[in-house]
Amino acid sequence: MSRTSRLDSAIVTGNLPVLVTGSSGFIGGSISNELKRSGVAVVTLDVNGTPDIKADAADPAVLADVRRGAYSAVVHQAGISNTLEKDEELLYQHNTAKPLAIADACSSSATLFIYASSFSVYGATGRRPLRESDLSTTTGPLNAYARSKLLLDERMSCRFGGGNWIGLRYTNVFGPREPISGRMASVISRWLCNSARREPIEIFEGTEDSGRDFVEVHRIARVILRRILDDSKDSARGVFNMGSGTTVTFGELLNWCREFAGEAIKVRTVPFHIGEQYQHWTSVDMGLLAQHYPDQTVSDKESLKEYARYCWASHK
Predict the structure, then answer these.
(1) Fewer CB near the terminus (10 Å): N or C of the chain?
(2) Tell me, what DSSP letter sits at residue 284?
(3) Domain range list for the chain
(4) Given this structure, which CATH class describes domain 10-171+216-245+285-298?
């Protein structure tokens, strides 16, 4: 049976699948797996790997399927994740224009649209936990990547208001099976991997007191699952922070690596060269999302540490 025929059958029976774009990536793949484990029918889409649909997320045929109501939800995780990308037009097309095209198709069929935003939209923040309404009190985006994400958030709110959609401002996502090669691998996964393999950890000079909100990838997947299953009139709609609600300093993270290794680790200090584009601290107020899903939105430091230990062991 062709893909079109399968989708036609799903529309007739009402057993609509969820479309996950960017499914060959770390976060998209984790979301797909969590949905499948929970019994949700999933159609995967990516330009890489071996998804069910090998196509661009904004392919006209894909958008046509969304418009005719072939999916119960679209979970959009595709796009450019390189925070150092400087091509503003490229970022606009992939991180703003294409998601908006998908959102428009979803709106036509009253299909739930869930997309990945970024905590980087806040820029330099100080050390207080930030709420979604605090954007005006921060520097705002520090780079082109963050600007493309903020523009998407703003246009989603302007065009679709309180419609059937939700954007999640991810902090620093980590988990097992995250690729640790390349520039965009999370600092926590790189350090856990390097210490597990007895390889040197590199840290920018003067940043041991800098901190990040690290969030477990399965927590994101479970929040998305909850939103897909929540069709009440009071379901979460709009833009929300998506972190753990707990900040871990780089110094603390180094100590975790030492503890997991049970021995001294190699640490190499490198010159700090990023300048004003560096986000020294992330601290997230998860109160708004917790109003909807209180059991899925906060991790204490000890549970984060144990999850990090699990990830560390997976790299040995």
Answers:
(1) N
(2) B
(3) 10-171+216-245+285-298
(4) alpha beta
